[in-house]
Amino acid sequence: MQRREPYNQLWLILLFVSIVLVILWIYQQKHMTSSRSSNTSASSAADRNQTNTDTASSATDQNRTDTDTASSRNAFDRYLTIEDPLRFRGTEESGIAESYQRVCYPSPAEKKEAKDTQTNGYYIVRPGDTLSKIAWIFHIDMKTIMLLNHIEKKDALRAGQKLLLPLSEEMIEAFLSGAYEVKEGDTLLGIAKRFGIDPKLFAKENNIVNSADIYPGRVMILPFAHLKPVSRKKRTKKRYPKFIKRFGKHALRVTATAYTSHCGQTDSTPFLAAWNNRLRPGMKAIAVSRDLIWKYGLKNGTKVRISGLPGIYRVRDKMNKRYRRRIDIYMGLNRKKALRWGRRSVVIYW
Fold first, then answer.
1. Which residues are 348's β-sheet partners?
2. Same domain, 194 and 166
3. Is 173 part of any domain?
């Protein structure tokens, strides 16, 4: 029993030490947690203080800006505000005086405008009008129209455009309608000279025999060339020269091409044609499509005259089955001549 006592005491000491260590560890953990929470609260408080400080400074700056703006406005209002004097507003008496002066004494600009209205007039461009046509209708120089309207000859006119002319509105209307109402003091020669027409033609058109036929209020007809109806020529059939028309009894319009005696344009025997005919350069021969043979009778050896070409040609060859109403003119060995001929529409007679 005495030997076991030291071991028991040792276990008691170890147990006590372990309990003390656990207590110290718990205390340390609590201390660290409290310090962290205190630090967090301190930092958040500092942030709130900084935010409040910034808000206060921005409000102070805004107040300073408003104060400066108000002071500047007061300064401008103080030194630059102009009160409208009486002469700007005018009075009833001054308005009456100005209107009286405007009526009794027109300004130079108003005088010029009134003069232009009496001597010049406007013409509204119609579809198809040109400067030369307008100058011809109104018997005036084209350069005058260009100078008055500040345009050039190459400028295009559009329908609805207004052109200033050196004529009054009354004369422009007379030129367009071909009618003129006689005024007091008008004479036959005066009206004819004013509108640029022949006095005899003017008298004949209006059945004027003596001066008594011209009286104020009468509407006279102005025989302008642009108002006369244009006579359309009747279409006539195209007549061919007599020496061609007299040849043969038949005529037919066909498509004409040209070919030569080269292997690229014919078969392996370029100088041997249909019906066993021999071709040689300089010969006036043609090949015809097969419908011309059985439908129109252009058989081997038929004499044919071609419009636009001199001489008489003979049918010596026939073309491929796929061609219709077509002839091929033989050009010998002259390939350039055949290329220049190309494809044309001609009339043949046989």
1. 252, 306
2. yes
3. yes
Kindly report each contact of residues 39-45 with a partner whose C-beta sits within 8 Å and lies 24 or more positions away, as own/partner. none
- Residue 325 is predicted with a pLDDT of 93
Q: What is the CATH number of the domain that holds 132?
A: 3.10.350.10
- CATH code at position 307: 2.40.40.10
* Domain limits for position 174: 120-227
Are 129 and 172 in a shared domain? Answer: yes
Cβ(232)–Cβ(238) below 8 Å = no
Instruction: Give pLDDT tens digits for 304-349.
Output: 999 989 999 999 999 988 999 999 999 988 888 888 898 999 999 9
Structure letter (DSSP) for residue 268: S
Over residues 68-83, the pLDDT tens digits come to 555 555 554 444 444 4
By CB neighbour count within 10 A (0-12 exposed, 13-18 middle, 19+ buried), where does 90 fall?
A: exposed
d(CA 177, CA 169) in angstroms, rounded, equals: 12
Q: How far apart are CA 131 and CA 140, in angstroms?
A: 11
Question: Within a domain: residue 23?
Answer: no
CA distance 314 to 308: 16
| pTM given for the model | 0.35
